[in-house]
Amino acid sequence: MPTRKLLLYFSKCETEKPIVYRLVKDYNLMINIFRAKVTPDEEGYLVLDVAGTDEDINNGLEYVKSFGVTVNETLKGVRWDSVKCTSCGNCIPRCPTGALYYPDKHALKVDFDPTQCIECLNCIKNCPFDACRSLF
Ligand code: SF4
Ligand code: SF4
């Protein structure tokens, strides 16, 4: 039976919806939750395995997306805030993969490539401006 590992990220207005219950009951899915942060009046996330037929999984994901839940299959929990980032460069030598980098070495404006991020969390520990954070 197909199994997919997913991160569901939802805004604070959706945190009290019985998402997992509905996925099990209405879409015949088996759910294994690895990590969760669900606090009333705050944004939250679930990291889970979803097992079922492809059709049931896809229908279940359409259901959760229909009320604004972000479904992330890459499980990259690190977020970079381009507004908070001052391009101070403190994180650049500490990022082992170049996920935080200077696209233009002359402009010295930092950018973030989430596909390169291995979630080592170095940038979070070393950012003086709180521009990096983890969903986990
Ligand atoms: S340490 Fe923080 S503020 Fe400085 S460049 Fe990196 S992400 Fe931007
Ligand atoms: S978590 Fe690690 S790999 Fe990802 S951007 Fe930060 S320092 Fe780079």
Strand order of the largest sheet: 2-3-1-4
CATH topology name of the largest domain, in short, is Alpha-Beta Plaits
> How does CATH name the architecture of the largest domain?
2-Layer Sandwich
Task: Quickly give the structural class.
Answer: alpha+beta
* Beta-strand content bin: 25-35%
Separation, N- and C-terminal Cα atoms: 28 Å
- Count the strands? 8
* Number of separate structural domains: 2
Major β-sheet profile:
4 strands, antiparallel
CATH class of the largest domain: Alpha Beta
How many H/I helices? 3
Question: What would you say this structure looks like, in words?
Answer:
- The protein has helices spanning 19-27, 54-65, 122-126, and strands spanning 3-10, 30-37, 44-51, 70-72, 78-80, 100-101, 111-112, 132-134.
- The chain has two domains: 3-72, ACT domain (Alpha-Beta Plaits); 78-134, Alpha-Beta Plaits (2-Layer Sandwich), CATH 3.30.70.
- The chain has 136 residues and is of the alpha+beta class.
- Helix 1 (19-27) runs antiparallel to helix 2 (54-65).
- It contains three helices and eight strands.
- One iron/sulfur cluster is lined by residues 85-91, 100, 110, 123, 127, 129, 131-132.
Please name the defining characteristics of this protein:
single chain, 136 residues, alpha+beta, Alpha-Beta Plaits, 2 domains, 4-stranded antiparallel beta sheet, two-stranded antiparallel sheet, 3 helices, 19% helix, 27% strand, binds iron/sulfur cluster
